[in-house]
């Protein structure tokens, strides 16, 4: 990863003995450095440089750095060093496409199609679509990218009844826009669950992360005019993506309460 030119360096605070442990003081200094002096993807000073600059032990330096990696402020690249992590993409929980969502954030979206085929879905997906055992549905696997960087890997099942000939279309663009334009089947409702997972070998390959890295899994079921349209499991990079939910004073059952799905299609 290339080193990006840094902003002008400010004189840091001194690390001293006191009530606050040294590693906590250094963590604060490095966080400020990452936010005000260094640009995203810039390398931070080496452990030796930090030891000499702040007169602290290697253990103190490593503890501060590990804490900031855990916070998502820094990221370690195997064999290269530790860098300022790029800002995460924040996604509000609403019903919108990945493509439109990334464009709103000034990021260029793109898609790499991995697999498109008719295949027998798992039993729970077959029941969702109302298919007989062994009947095929469309299976589509895609890597979603923002500014050329993998952001999510999707494993999706799509209705064979509502979307005939799906494999003849360009599936590298927004599927929701395709459904509305070519099939008159806009997605108008969805349910989803979100959970934390870790990357297995396949996800690590598609998302360009390490096996065991944190992953955000979003399981989504979407309908069009009440008819089951898609079942999609999306895995997002935990270091680049976060979901944001604004909670108001409405409650379920209140006429003003409008549940909304997530945005990752």
From TrEMBL:
Pfam families: GntR, UTRA. Coiled coil: none annotated. It comes from the Bacteria. The keyword Transcription applies. Keywords: DNA-binding, Transcription, Transcription regulation. InterPro entries: Bact_HTH_transcr_reg, Chorismate_lyase_/UTRA_dom_sf, Tscrpt_reg_HTH_GntR, UTRA, WH-like_DNA-bd_sf, WH_DNA-bd_sf. Residues 20-87 form the HTH gntR-type domain. PROSITE patterns: HTH_GNTR. SUPFAM superfamilies: Chorismate lyase-like (SSF64288), Winged helix' DNA-binding domain (SSF46785). This is GntR family transcriptional regulator. It comes from Fodinibacter luteus.
